[in-house]
Design a protein that fits this description.
- It is a single chain.
- The chain is mainly α.
- It has one domain.
- The protein has five helices and no strands.
- Helix 1 runs antiparallel to helix 5 and helix 3 packs antiparallel against helix 4.
Length: 156
């Protein structure tokens, strides 16, 4: 039986075992890493915004509300990632959308950075961290997508 890649069957040669494709599980792990980073950032922004207002040249209650709002957006944006973690083959569209969302973040953050003058040192450094994070996440999601793009839906 062809499953699109190395399977767990070599670990457990019994005939009664369910054969799970390793590309699917590797893809899940990669997506989970990116989702966990995003969710962690969302939760921290939501519950501890005072730690971040200065990094975005904000202050006071309005600044904390803005950072909390970004935290909520992080959590919202991760809904398709969670479907993709659950089953990246069955929910291939969710994985594709997650990849495109990550790319959108990277392009948008790069644009924002390009609009800032050099005297916004702290803000530029904060945005550069987002760019680095989203670039790493994009690489992981592209790998995850490549691993499952041609697997038939019945192998997950």
């Amino acid at each position: 039986m062809k499953t699109g890649g190395i399977t767990a069957a070599f670990l457990f040669p019994q005939k009664s075992i369910i054969i799970l494709p390793m590309p699917s599980w590797t893809s899940r792990l990669l997506i989970l890493l990116v989702a966990a980073w995003n969710i962690q950032a969302g939760i921290v922004f939501l519950v501890s915004p005072q730690s971040f207002v200065g990094a975005y040249e904000l202050s006071g209650a309005a600044g904390e509300a803005a950072v909390r709002g970004v935290g909520v957006l992080f959590l919202m944006w991760n809904v398709p990632y969670l479907f993709a973690v659950f089953d990246p083959i069955r929910f291939r569209l969710a994985l594709t959308l997650s990849l495109l969302m990550q790319l959108t973040g990277l392009v948008g953050e790069s644009y924002i950075l390009s609009t800032l003058t050099m005297d916004h040192v702290v803000l530029r450094e904060s945005i550069l961290r987002f760019i680095a994070f989203d670039a790493a996440g994009l690489v992981l999601l592209v790998i995850a997508w490549l691993l499952v793009r041609k697997l038939p839906a019945s192998t997950s």
